[in-house]
Amino acid sequence: MDGVIYHGNTLLPGVKEFVEWMKAEKKQFLFLTNNSAPTPQELSEKLHRLGLDISANHFYTSALSTAKFLKSQKPHGGSCYVIGEPGLTYALYEHGFTMSSENPDYVVIGEGNSHNYEKLTKALNLIAKGAKLIGTNPDTNGVTDDGMVLGTGTFLAALELASGKKSFSCGKPSSLMMSYALKQLQGLSKEDVCIIGDRMDTDILAGVYADIDPVLVMSGVTTLDNLFVDAYRPYIVLNGVGEISGGVVETQPIKKKQ
């Protein structure tokens, strides 16, 4: 959502018009985020503070995707050692999982500011005893108002290297999250939807993996310098979501640098 809908606590140009257009046209929509820290209700409240009235059922987080996947693996519930924020633990609780630091079924890594050497060492030893390593997403970094921060994928990589075990990530670009999200859009197939995002390595790749048209907006982290680096391309490139609804975002030609 950051880089598409807002930057930090500032709504991006054209977003309000875009949301109003979707509502007026009775479009089904979901806001997908790899951030496992907030709950859907917290995301709804944040957008309300920014001037958008969007109910919690319009948000789908990597925490929900992770909890749903683990539920599919253990229908009767299980136990998790979690390094993350309340949005992740709440989603796991809601799907029948308890939190445990003693012989859990899974070690689950999400976003947060509480990651430290002690917790990662604890996770490493639990993995050595048989716990499966799960990540909410593979993002190696994120962007804040203060600059870059370490992402979930960075901690997963450290645990993989130390344990010799591979992790499984449930957020974008996994087609798993896309499949779960699509089921929230009643009566729609892959051909009826698109995914809009600002990151080539998560949003656009998620569309490619799921065979859903990916739309790249240049209002976030992607620049002209890295637009043409990857083997895959977006279906279309826009400067911002406001262009979809005829909002205030100005159109500029997207050209590859020579």
From TrEMBL:
GO CC entries: cytoplasm
Database matches in SUPFAM superfamilies: HAD-like
UniProt GO MF annotations: phosphatase activity
InterPro entries referenced in this protein's UniProt entry, alphabetically: HAD-like_sf (IPR036412), HAD-SF_hydro_IIA (IPR006357), HAD_sf (IPR023214)
Gene3D superfamilies: HAD superfamily/HAD-like
One Pfam family in the UniProt entry: Hydrolase_like
Superkingdom, natural source: Eukaryota
PANTHER family: 4-NITROPHENYLPHOSPHATASE-RELATED, HALOACID DEHALOGENASE-LIKE HYDROLASE DOMAIN-CONTAINING PROTEIN 2
Name of this protein: Nucleotide monophosphatase
